[in-house]
Design a protein that fits this description.
five-stranded mixed β-sheet, alpha/beta, Nucleotidyltransferase, domain 5, 11 helices, binds zinc ion, disordered C terminus, 2 domains, globular, binds 5'-O-[(R)-(carboxyoxy)(hydroxy)phosphoryl]adenosine
Length: 358
C-alpha cells in the first residue's frame, strides 16, 4: 500500500492550524509540519470563544499559516496528494473559512478534497502517533464532546456512552469562570488543583455506578457554583475547589470508562490486545492521564494517549484523517457543505480496508 502526503486545515474553534502529514494506515505517520496559531488573546476578555471574532481571525491568519506549513514541510502544493479540512462539527463561520480555503486550494492544484469530521480526526490521532489497530475503545473528552465509543474502522463507530448535558471540558471551563480563572479553564483548574486539598469539598459524582456508560456534569457544575457563592468560600479556597472538582471528574471518567470496557470486551471478544485511546483537549490533563492509565492496567487494557499538543485542536490530526481516507479512496466533491453538527454515529459506514485488524 502506498504512502499519502496530505495538507490538513483546522478552523472549527479558536485555533487556526495547518499541517502536512505523510504515512499509511494503520500508522504511525510522519508529521512534516504542524502549525497552530491560538486565538486565546482575542477571546480572553470575553471568557470564552466568540464565534464572529473566531471566523474573522481565521480569515486573516489562514493563508499565511498554510504557507508556513508547506514551507516547514519543504513541500509544494503540487507535491501533496490531497487537501483535507475540518467540515464539522464546530462553529460554522470558522468551519466555512477552512473548508472554503481547502476547496480553493484543491481546485487550483487539481488535487482531491477530503471533508474531515473533527471528532473522527481526534479519534484517529492515536493511529498517527502509535499505529493503534482497529478496533479500540475511545474516550473522547473535549470542550464540546464527552463520549465513549468503540472505533471499529474508518467511519465505523459504536456509541457506548455520551454526556446527557455538559461536556467535560465545558465543566472545566465553567468551573474556572466561576472562580474568575483565566480562559481556557482546563489548564487553569489543573494548575490550581496541584496545591489543593481534594477532600475539602464533597462534590457529587452524577451517574457514577449507574447502568450504561453515559456521563452527566451539570450537577457537578451547580455544586461548584453553590460552594463559590457560599459563606465558607474565600480566595484561599480556590485550590481546594479546583482539586475537589478535578477529583470528582476523575471518579466520573474512570467509573464510566470501566463500564464501557466491559461492553467493549463483550462486543469484541476476539481482540487480544485491548487498547483504550484517550483523545480531545481534556486528555492533556496529567491527573486524568494517570488515572486512566491506572484503570487500564487494572482492566487489562493498554492506554494510548497522544502527546498534549496532539490532544488539543491541531491540523496534524486532520491531515492524518485525510491520509486514512485517501487510502480507501474516500474523497469529497467541491460541493460538500460545512456542518455545525455532525455526530460520529451519523458518519457513513465505509472501511472495506479496515474490517478487523488493519
Ligand atoms: O479538543 P479541544 O482543543 O477543542 C474542542 O474540540 O473542544 O478541547 C478544548 C477543551 C477546553 O474545554 C479546555 O478547557 C480543555 O479542553 N482542556 C483541559 C486541559 N487542557 C485543555 N481540560 C483539563 N485539563 C487540561 N490540562
Ligand atoms: Zn477538538
Amino acid at each position: 500500500m502506498r504512502q499519502f502526503t496530505v495538507l490538513g486545515l483546522e478552523t472549527s474553534c479558536d485555533e487556526t492550524a495547518a499541517s502536512v502529514v505523510r504515512g499509511r494506515a494503520p500508522g504511525p505517520g510522519e508529521v512534516l509540519s504542524n502549525i497552530v496559531l491560538s486565538q486565546l488573546e482575542e477571546h480572553a476578555p470575553y471568557g470564552g470563544v466568540v464565534p464572529e471574532i473566531a471566523a474573522r481571525a481565521h480569515i486573516e491568519a489562514l493563508d499565511a499559516i498554510v504557507e508556513r506549513a508547506l514551507c516547514e514541510a519543504k513541500i509544494s502544493l503540487q507535491e501533496v496528494d490531497a487537501i483535507a479540512a475540518t467540515a464539522g462539527p464546530g462553529l460554522i463561520g470558522g468551519v466555512m473559512v477552512g473548508l472554503t480555503t481547502a476547496k480553493a486550494l484543491a481546485l487550483a492544484s487539481n488535487k482531491p478534497l477530503i471533508a474531515v469530521n473533527h471528532l473522527e480526526a481526534h479519534a484517529l490521532t492515536a493511529r498517527l502517533t502509535d499505529g493503534v489497530a482497529f478496533p479500540f475503545l475511545l474516550l473522547l473528552i473535549s470542550g464540546g464532546h464527552c463520549q465513549l465509543l468503540g472505533v471499529e474502522g474508518i467511519g465505523r463507530f459504536r456509541l457506548y456512552g455520551t454526556t446527557i448535558d455538559d461536556a467535560v471540558g465545558e465543566a472545566f471551563d465553567k468551573t474556572a469562570k466561576l472562580m474568575g480563572l483565566a480562559y481556557p479553564g482546563g489548564p487553569s483548574v489543573e494548575r490550581l488543583a496541584k496545591s489543593g486539598n481534594a477532600k475539602r469539598f464533597a462534590l457529587p459524582r452524577p451517574l457514577a455506578g449507574r447502568a450504561g456508560a453515559d456521563f452527566s456534569f451539570s450537577g457537578l457544575k451547580t455544586a461548584v457554583r453553590q460552594i463559590v457563592r457560599g459563606a465558607e468560600f474565600s480566595q484561599d479556597s480556590k485550590p481546594d475547589v479546583a482539586a475537589s472538582f478535578q477529583s470528582a471528574v476523575l471518579d466520573i471518567l474512570t467509573n464510566r470508562t470501566r463500564a464501557a470496557m466491559a461492553m467493549f470486551r463483550r462486543d469484541c471478544p476476539q481482540v487480544q490486545e485491548r487498547v483504550l485511546v484517550v483523545a480531545g483537549g481534556v486528555a492533556a490533563n496529567s491527573a486524568i492521564r494517570s488515572a486512566l492509565s491506572a484503570l487500564s492496567e487494572e482492566e487489562g487494557f493498554q492506554t494510548k494517549i497522544p502527546p498534549p499538543g496532539l490532544c488539543t485542536d491541531n491540523a496534524a490530526m486532520i491531515a492524518w484523517a485525510g491520509v486514512e481516507r485517501s487510502q480507501i479512496g474516500s474523497f469529497d466533491s467541491l460541493g460538500v457543505a460545512p456542518k455545525a453538527r455532525w455526530p460520529l454515529q451519523d458518519m457513513p459506514a465505509r472501511g472495506s480496508l479496515v474490517s478487523g485488524t488493519s
